Amino acid sequence: HLPLWANIFLVFVATMLVSFFASRFKNLWSMPLSLLLSILIFLACSFLFDLYNILINYSVPFAGMFFSYITIILYRSSTEEREKRKIRAMFGKYVSPEVVAQMMDHPPELGGVDKELTVFFSDIRGFTSLSETLTPQELVKHLNEYLSAMTDIILETGGTLDKYVGDEIMCFWGAPLEVQDHAFRACQCALLQKKKLAELNEQWPMEKRLAIGIGLNTGIMTV
Questions:
Q1: CA distance 162 to 176
Q2: CB 171 within 8 A of CB 154
Q3: Rg (Cα) of the chain, in Å, rounded?
Q4: Each residue's pLDDT tens digit, 165-218
Q5: How far does Cα 72 stand from its chain's mean position?
Q6: How far apart are CA 156 and CA 61, in angstroms?
Q7: 114 DSSP β-pair partners
Q8: Residues in CB range of 157: below 8 A, 6 or more apart
Q9: CA-angle at 58, arms to 2 and 51, nearest 5°
Q10: What are the pLDDT digits (tens) for 83-93?
């Protein structure tokens, strides 16, 4: 029989290796590596018994590896799912589903960092005069239709919605996920919004037609 200290050492090393694989690698890699390790230990046990009559109880290190792997995978699954729910809750209203999906794999730094971004703001020209000609219900419905169409374009171009201030929209590109062409995307969004607004104006009566002003700026910002 293998001495007790050697058995303990074998179980410790095998368990630690599997724990390392399970905690540091994705399942795609950790499972094959853990299976390979268990097969190698089994072959080593067979080899020592056949050639040197040394008996090793393989079930003990295997049980240690199996339960360590299962425990760590279950723990990672629960904590990672909790982090994903947190990210979805925080950013689901402000960025597109595609961006949220990318953030699952690359969580953003939530502390405030300096980055070069492009910020966008727009508002409706003559909004005060327009609001005086409509009832509150009509104004809300009209504004919702306009804001929804403009926001869809922001999200389609990978922008992050910052806020609405009455009829004003503020958003930016380059955070929480970094994009190199943030200035291009902001310009693209502005042009698409002007085009979309022209289409909406054709559907609206003359007294409800809108004109907007758009401002863009690229620079270092704390986000």
A1: 11
A2: yes
A3: 29
A4: 989 999 999 988 888 999 999 999 999 999 999 999 999 999 899 999 999 999
A5: 23
A6: 52
A7: 222
A8: 173, 185, 186, 188, 189, 192
A9: 55
A10: 778 877 777 77
